[in-house]
Amino acid sequence: MATKTKTLHDLFIDQLKDTYYAEKQILKALPKMAKAAQDPESKKAFETHRDETERQIERLEQVFELCDTPARGKTCEAMVGILEEGKEVMEEYAGSEALDAGLIASAQAVEHYEIARYGTLKALAMQLGMKDAAKLLDETLAEEKKTDELLSKLAQTRANTKSQKAA
Questions:
Q1: Is residue 106 a contact partner of residue 46, using CB atoms and an 8 Å limit?
Q2: pLDDT at 167
Q3: What is the pLDDT of residues 121-167, one digit of tens each?
Q4: Interval 5-45: pLDDT, tens
Q5: Which residues of 17-34 are buried (b: 16+ CB within 10 A; e: fewer)?
Q6: Which of 137, 113, 130, 140 is nearest to 54 (CA)?
């Protein structure tokens, strides 16, 4: 029996399911990261991103609708691994001055993964002529890039504060 040749649309749906799963896992992890954070700015950044993530999940659900496909996730091993590393940071650095820096590093790993996924999804949507889906995905891509920039600034601010205290 011959197997069906996979199409670009099949790849798009697979990537969409992977990203949907990843966002749902991130949504569960962000409150834990916010609770673990010691610095009020870090805590606020994780709480803000949690709200954004809820909207991003809603956008993904709209893209599924545009594809006449049920919104269903597919286990994303990459995100499972990234979030597991974040959990290890929270456990190993609990109460230490390095905790927030570790949380920020973990959050940036998540952001970079999401930026890659949303960039690919947007490009696939454009190739498939799905302009409405591409627009929704681009909104999220822009948010992810903005969050990554915020995390970079937070990391830099924390590093500068630590070096000034040491001086």
A1: no
A2: 47
A3: 999 999 999 999 999 999 999 999 999 999 999 888 766 555 455 54
A4: 999 999 999 999 999 999 999 999 999 999 999 989 999 99
A5: bbbbbbbbbbeebbeebb
A6: 140
Residue 166 CA, chain-centre distance (Å), reads 33
Distance from C-alpha of 38 to C-alpha of 153, rounded to nearest angstrom: 17
Q: Are 100 and 37 in contact (CB under 8 A)?
A: yes
Residue 47: how many other CB atoms lie within 10 Å: 15
Output the six-digit token pair for 117. 């996924």
DSSP assignment of 13-66, as one string? Answer: HHHHHHHHHHHHHHHHHHHHHHHH--SHHHHHHHHHHHHHHHHHHHHHHHHHHH
